């Protein structure tokens, strides 16, 4: 299992704390080691799997929009996107639990035409207002046909750090690394109204592999 670079420091730090804890238990209450060692190893394993970076094969498609995240579809609706488009768009929301891969991926080939970080609150990620009120990072990618897709990485109740690798005017390919959100979080995708949605509510999706929609 590959570990993403965002997790290497955290995993090493947590592993060190766990090792020191068990050494302390061994010195003070050695009879507890049969309990503490398995428990702490399971806890460490949870953090390791959170930062996993699985290999993904992104389908070659001219008009398809890939899912930027692993998770569950929790909303498909028409909304007014007020930050960049300032107009009505189709929004597809993906909720990422702590058990999902938290590496985010680029949904389409194109050029980054906007990227902006916003500090905010830490409502639970599936809260309807989290897209507007929580800490978030917005990225807009434009394809060669002039169509624009907005991806919004949203922090959740536990997520306290959003990483975005995108820079304005950067050329990107579908499936490239877009960023990383640590712990439970959400990713919203805003599409042109004429887009054809290929997913449904409660569907499980994979970043860089599942086709969310087709652009017209």
List keywords for this structure.
alpha+beta; 3 helices; 216 residues; three-stranded antiparallel beta sheet; 2 domains; Glucose Permease (Domain IIA); 14 strands; eight-stranded antiparallel beta sheet; 35% strand
Please provide a written account of the structure.
The structure is a single chain. By secondary structure, the protein is of the alpha+beta class. It has helices spanning about 5-30, 35-50, 130-135; strands at about 65, 70-80, 85-95, 105, 110-120, 135-140, 150-155, 160-165, 170, 175-180, 185-190, 195, 205, 210-215. The protein folds into two domains: about 5-50, no CATH class; about 65-215, Glucose Permease (Domain IIA) (Distorted Sandwich), CATH 2.70.70.10. A hairpin with a 5-residue loop joins strand 2 and strand 3. Helix 1 (about 5-30) packs antiparallel against helix 2 (about 35-50).
